[in-house]
Amino acid sequence: MWRPNYAAISSVLTALLFAAAGTAAQPTATPSGRTWQSDGSAADVQKIHDRQASDGDTIVIPKGTFNWTGTVRLTKAIILKGQTIRNDDGTSIDNTIIQDNIPLSANKGLIELKAPGGQRVTGITFVQGRTQVQGNGIISVSGTTPTRIDHCVFDHVYFSPMINVNDYNYGLVDHCTKRNAIGMEGLLHFRMGALSGDHGDTPWTLPAGYGGPNFFFVEDNLTWGGIDCTLGTRLVVRHNVFMNANMASHGTGMSLHDGRGARAVELYNNEWHLNGYLLNGSNDGGIIVHDEKIWAKAGNVTGIGLGNYRSIYNFGPPFLGASGASPWDYNATEADSSHIDGHPPYLFDSGTISSVAGKVITVTGKSWSTNQWAGYGFLRPSDGATAAIVSNTSDTLTVNQWRSQGFAVGNTYQIHKMIRALDQPGLGAQVGTMNRKNPRWMQQVTEPCYEWNNRDQNNNNNLVHFKQQAGGWTIIEGRDYINGTQLPGYTPYTYPHPLTTSLSPPQPSGGVKVGSRHHFYKKEKNEAKKARRKKWGHAKENLANEMTQPDQ
Domain residue spans in the chain? Predict the structure, then answer.
């Protein structure tokens, strides 16, 4: 008796449905999922993703140059794979090139990695098309499942940054090259608390966790341009080469008024060719820095900076400036500069400005002792304008402010003293939950910053230490930072990161090897790269297996 072949009928119906929707890509079965071949256009990649690919699959972009004018949104745990080969010295064979021509009005990047995350982007070269700078990142990362971006090249692209991380994604960017910079745009910006809606608060309720896995890792990259971080970011930057670059740490309330500063950062085994003389460390949050090789723009490296911009500027509500009068900060409440819980900030002096000449403010009729107000806060109570007093004479005050706040004749002022500022370097986990409508001192624990074995390559390999920078007058050595001492009990996290593998990328058999305008070769400095690496457990998920593959 004849019976219908339901499997065959199902296959025919599926094919007809795909045909009705347009020409369908045909998958290739692999042990780690199916591989779909795209035609390289953004539209085709998006169509395969939306209609055909499933979690664990790979969408391949072929060799060639492709003009993208729209955003590809990846909401499935897939791998987007081009054919570019990025070599260990930072040069590349740009087999798959995507030209950025997304309209500026779109205010979008080229690729969005959206929740639930877990994607990988690899082997793609991004090049200039549009010539107006876009600010949201060529690749935007959201979702808390770790993402990997590797072996990609960003060449003279009008984006700042190249990659934007907007959620608590503890993933990895490795073996990428950013070259031929337009200006000072960075490789990565981290705003981890942006999409969660917590403004970066959650990491401030927890210990720093140095040496652990709950960080975003940036390793083995070559980049012209540095890294920015804020909003509770936890970040490890290691084994990279930075050219004409620096770190940027946006403190609490500074760039995003409701936002907290970065929570914890580790910098180690990098080469820094600075765009200045000081390596920026932290402007809020904890940091450890070790085994860095540092070149100043010219002359000697002046240090690794620790600062707090709220003490030299009023960034507006809710945190305002840290003048010694804000309830967010730990302030002097007594005439002897001590603090008693529950007492209001002590008013040390007040009056009216007689004249202003640059940084020097004159108050006629005073008879102060020389430098009696050095290290105190200067506040204009009418609007909260805040500066730090650097020195004083009998009737003048020399103040430091980040930007001009228009101090003028006739302004009233107050002098207070801040002992420690909210989230300043050297402070860690808070007690309780922050309510921005009910400001209070968050009772943060002391968590010193540590540095050791950082070397000035322009100055006989001399040691480079932490130092106070902008607004850092309440950041005290021995309490808030420890120079020349390893963090007790600290061991760096597994290197290379478990999302990578011990194997090197495949070597090219031909093609043009592309480097920077000023070719820079990164030597293998760590013998661990030649040793056997530990593989990342025995991953049971197809995606996890695929993310550890080195193939380009």
Answer: 32-185+501-538, 211-243+253-308+426-495, 330-420
